[in-house]
Design goal:
alpha/beta; seven-stranded parallel sheet; about 15% strand
Length: about 250
């Protein structure tokens, strides 16, 4: 049977939402998890809860825009559990607004967190994966990149850039050492809207989440499905939407 038992998984953006749900589910299924985020008190509390329920968990404070923080995350996984099997690039922000608003600071922030943060994760994890002879990169992307809506041009661009990086890494990794999976959520009930700069866009997003959003655990199950596959199977991309979302 497929199993996560013994897998060592590091997760960025694990202080809430999809990252927290993923950490909790994977730990329940037998993986050891390393939770990372900027909020130490939050990830420490989640990790403690996981341990109290019999799971294995460690923490590492990480700002994904800093390459040295991602290197420290990989080192923490190896120091605590002996290796790193999976890196889940989940950290992301969405200060979206119409291009005409010229929110260049928001554009730069999305590029730094959503794209550069993923690249920093790859740069940190890939040497360890190669040295071990195996590894799996999972990135949380977005269906926003599949059908671009007004106000989401730059956000969608960063997510599609991550898709492209994943495909490039896949084509460079046909020796079977590194697997890649891009998971694209639709409306999920998280606090992502809090990072949206435009108040009208923020309010509309929250309404859509309330009306049709599904729990973060839905995405966590997709992550678990992808990484529990045997070594000769790669799940390249999964889209996870509410059934009522267009």
């Amino acid at each position: 049977m497929l199993s996560l038992h013994g897998k060592i998984v590091a997760i960025t953006g694990a202080s809430g939402g999809i990252g927290e749900a993923t950490a909790r589910l994977l730990a329940q299924r037998g993986a050891a998890v390393v939770l990372s985020a900027r909020r130490s008190e939050r990830i420490d509390a989640i990790a403690q809860d996981i341990r109290e329920q019999g799971g294995r968990a460690a923490t590492c404070v990480v700002d994904v825009t800093k390459a040295e923080d991602l290197r420290r995350l990989v080192s923490t996984a190896i120091d605590q559990f002996g290796r790193i099997d999976v890196l889940v690039n989940n950290a992301g922000i969405a200060p979206i607004s119409p291009l005409a608003d010229l929110d260049t600071e928001g554009w730069s922030a999305m590029i730094d967190v959503n794209l550069r943060g993923t690249l920093n994760g790859i740069a940190a994890a890939l040497p360890a994966f190669r040295e071990q002879g195996s590894g799996h990169l999972v990135s949380i992307v977005s269906v926003a990149g599949l059908s671009v809506s007004p106000s989401m041009a730059v956000y969608a661009a960063t997510k599609n850039a991550v898709r492209t990086v994943h495909e490039g890494l896949r084509t460079e990794s046909t020796d079977g050492v590194v697997r890649t999976t891009a998971i694209s959520p639709g409306y999920i009930r998280t606090d992502l809207a809090d990072s949206m700069a435009d108040p009208h866009v923020r309010e509309q997003t929250r309404k859509n989440m309330d009306a049709m959003g599904i729990p973060p655990a839905a995405v966590a199950r997709a992550v678990a499905f992808a990484i529990e596959q045997p070594a000769d199977v790669e799940i390249g991309e999964i889209n996870v939407r509410p059934t009522v979302q267009a």
